[in-house]
Automatic annotation (TrEMBL):
The chain crosses the membrane at residues 12-30. It is found in: Membrane. One of its GO terms (cellular component) is Golgi apparatus. One of its GO terms (biological process) is phosphatidylinositol phosphate biosynthetic process. It comes from the Eukaryota. Its EC number is 3.1.3.25. Its cofactor is Mg(2+). SUPFAM superfamilies: Carbohydrate phosphatase (SSF56655). This is Putative inositol monophosphatase 3. Keywords: Hydrolase, Magnesium, Membrane, Metal-binding, Transmembrane, Transmembrane helix. It catalyses: a myo-inositol phosphate + H2O = myo-inositol + phosphate. PROSITE patterns: IMP_2. GO terms for molecular function: 3'-nucleotidase activity; inositol monophosphate phosphatase activity; metal ion binding.
Length: 347
């Protein structure tokens, strides 16, 4: 027995071992392209690229719940009361389930995030809610999006777990969307509108990036022909107002869902979205952000931009006008002239 023998080190073997350890460490710390995103532990700062990913996932995960409930015979429809126009304001099991996964899913990743939802978590329980981790594959690989950080106290997230609930109960699913909006210091900056039944997600981060469908959008040329899209629940009154504002030859389209209507303007199927009564800000924040990103503008009928800060009222009481900027200026001027002439006529 030779206890004093020497040990020979295989240099090639060591090189392979250290190389393997390096790549293993890199994979664990950095992660693969399909691994969940790592979220920094500082609870006071939010990475907006990661919040964009989370917002897209929240809208899509909420949409899964909306579709699942739609397969049931009973939607468990209740009423919140009547709208200002006298229409029923329903709420369903889908609204609640979508809300739970959207709000709790975002809070799972961003615990201190200020979220304002159409549905109130304090009035419901969310048992067995399906949480999610960030999945960067919701963004196409060709996108290069910066890691921009913002103080969390400057951020307010508005979610609409199910837009066009009435139409959902009527199975008019083309109007149904789930929406997420990220406002920074009250300004709508990131918007996500997802149709659960077509699986189409439209999103934008103003000044940074947009979903692929928005890159194909061609702005409608300024024209004297006006096509107004209005709520199908408002009946003849808004049609008469539209013709008063824009002329007797105005073409009027009736539809449901604020998210749906904004997208019709963006894609050139209407030149203006007009709403003449009260509307909640979770209905319009996402559309406002997306419209800004493609060169449009949304204001109340007095031409004031809407603010979406945490202390702002959730209710916009002064109507709504959404259009591309060139059209918007023209339409606001017509509305102002119409109202001025109405006042003169009364004198």
């Amino acid at each position: 027995m030779n206890l004093g023998g020497s040990i020979r080190i295989n240099k090639c073997g060591l090189l392979i071992l250290f190389t393997a350890l390096f790549f293993l460490t890199y994979y664990v710390l950095i992660g693969s392209s399909t691994a969940p995103e790592y979220v920094p532990r500082d609870p006071n700062v939010v990475n907006l690229r990661k919040l964009l990913i989370g917002a897209i996932q929240a809208a899509e995960k909420g949409g899964v719940e909306v579709v699942t409930v739609s397969t049931h015979a009973d939607f468990h429809v209740k009423s919140k009361g009547k709208t200002a126009e006298g229409a029923n304001n329903p709420v369903t099991e889908a609204d609640f389930k979508s809300h739970c996964v959207m709000q709790f899913g975002l809070h799972h990743i961003f615990p201190r995030l200020k979220i304002i939802s159409e549905e109130d978590s304090s009035k419901m329980s969310c048992p067995d809610v399906k949480l999610f981790d960030l999945d960067p594959t919701v963004l196409r690989e060709s996108l290069t999006i910066p890691d921009e950080t913002v103080d969390i106290d400057d951020i307010t997230v508005w979610i609409d777990p199910l837009d066009a609930t009435q139409e959902y109960t009527e199975r008019l699913f083309e109007y149904v969307t789930t929406m997420v909006c990220v406002a920074i210091k009250g300004i709508p900056t990131i918007g996500v509108i997802h149709n659960p039944f077509t699986q189409k997600t439209t999103w934008a981060w103003t000044g940074v990036a947009t979903s692929e469908d928005l890159q194909k959008v061609k702005k409608t040329e300024l024209t004297d022909r006006t096509t107004v899209i209005v709520s199908r629940s408002h009946g003849g009154e808004v049609k008469n107002i539209s013709k008063g504002y824009f002329g007797e030859n105005t073409q009027i389209i009736t539809a449901a869902g604020a998210g749906y209507k904004v997208l019709q303007v963006i894609h050139g199927n209407a030149t203006v979205y007009l709403h003449t009564t009260n509307i909640k800000k979770w209905d319009v924040c996402a559309g406002d952000a997306i419209l800004r990103a493609v060169g449009g503008k949304m204001t109340n009928l007095l031409n004031d931009e809407l603010l979406y800060g945490p202390l702002e009222s959730v209710l916009n009481t002064k109507g709504l006008l959404a259009a591309y900027k060139g059209h918007h200026e023209k339409y606001i001027e017509r509305i102002s002239d119409y109202r001025t002439n109405k006042i003169i006529d009364k004198v």
